[in-house]
Amino acid sequence: MIENITEEYTILSDKFSEFRNNIQFPSRINTDDESVPEVFKNYEYPVTAWPILINKEMTDELKELSFKMPKLLQKIPSLYFNNDIKKIAEFYFDGNEILAEFGMMCHDKNVQIGCRLDLTYTEEGFKILEVNMGSSLGGWQIHSLESVIRRNHPELWDEDKSNNYKTRNTLEIYMEYLIEQIIKQVGKENDTLNLFIDMRDVEDTERNKNLCFFDNYYRQALRKKGLTGSAYAADIKTLELINGDLYFEDKIIHGVIILALDVEITPAIFRAFIMDKIYFPDHVGLRMQGDKRNLAILRELAQAGKFALKDNELLLRNIPWTSPVEDKRTIFKGKEYNLSELLKANKDRFVIKAARGYQGKDVFIGKFQSDIEWEEILETALENGFFIAQEFSDSIGFMAPNEQNEWTPHKLIWGAFGFGDFYGGVWVRMSEVKTDVGVINSATGAVEAIVFEILN
Hints:
This protein is an alpha+beta fold. It has a domain at 321-391: Dna Ligase, domain 1 (2-Layer Sandwich), CATH 3.30.1490. It has helices at residues 16-19, 56-73, 76-79, 85-92, 97-107, 146-152, 170-186, 204-224, 267-274, 286-289, 294-303, 309-318, 339-345, 371-384; strands spanning 52-54, 115-122, 125-133, 165-166, 195-198, 231-234, 240-242, 245-248, 251-252, 255-258, 322-324, 329-332, 335-338, 350-354, 363-365, 387-391, 398-401, 407-419, 422-432, 447-454. Strands 1, 2, 3, 4, 17, 18, 19 and 20 form an eight-stranded mixed β-sheet that branches. It has a four-stranded antiparallel β-sheet with strand order 11-16-14-15. Strand 8 and strand 9 form a beta hairpin. Helix 4 crosses helix 5 (97-107) and helix 11 packs across helix 12 (309-318). The chain starts with 15 loop residues before the first helix and ends with a strand.
């Protein structure tokens, strides 16, 4: 029960005593609440009714990592592959050198791309598990539940209603960033900037709800800059290149983002982007930046001292040991091993995951696999060639309410957003330790949580 909690770590940080008596409401939010935007009514994932509180030190660390990681990833083709198209094609594009050429053409335009770091907080601090790049980043939706959290927890306000705790509106921050990038890419010769959002996999009714919601945020962000424009949504194949401009019906489009995965990029989109007619972060080169094997490359480059001293230290401190699963020798904790023998003999210390996976798919945590299952997973990974092995970075057990409102240890995964020089905040997925199955992901049953930063 809540009265007996004395553990060092709770989701309420060192403010636990201020909130401990506020237990009269259910442990999960009713997302059908009148204050929740229509598009998020009946939200598909459970959301805890309690906030996660973090101090300035944690905020500053998440902010630095979100700024630095995309910039360091951008340097991999030159520092690791020496811009060799053949090597880049073999590593990222299944040997297709034409795709690699196109990918590098896009990469060399050096456009900023939004990212979300997935991290765990261990006894040694934050560890980066994945870097997700592009526009199809989930987690920003959680801010829409801020009003429900604040209503349930008056402690989040001071007596004079000043803001003791803040949560960052990720979508609002993203829209401001998005407009800056569009202006940077195409200029603003006129006062209208139109955005196209590919929603081919979304049903018409849901598409209209989503578009209305996005368009409202986009227009608000434009108005702050004295600009006009709208967001449009349809199948990306409906876009046409006419007289050098990209059109959706009779509207010139200045920015294109793709919210779905594995969408084929049309010639019209590619040409418009190469000619600087659109801001397009989800280009062919994104395949390079989104590959999970990059974490192993960054550690290798840092060990060789290829970055600035502070960046080398950051990478070696915050990225756990990571390696592509291959038949090779490797160094782990200062000793040399055959990689497959190391993984076989120490399964509880490692995770194997697909280099291009998402939503927790094809992630295998050794301690939750039998010896036979682990050997089969390792054999598949060796044959496939697109898997990584990573040192298992176990989350500290944070005390949090379970579905029955009992405070028990939970493991947390943190999703921190970085949009260029904009820090977009962080959200959390958590799973009760006693029901832990290894993978902590919304799509596999985790509970989501909104994060507030402690201001004083």
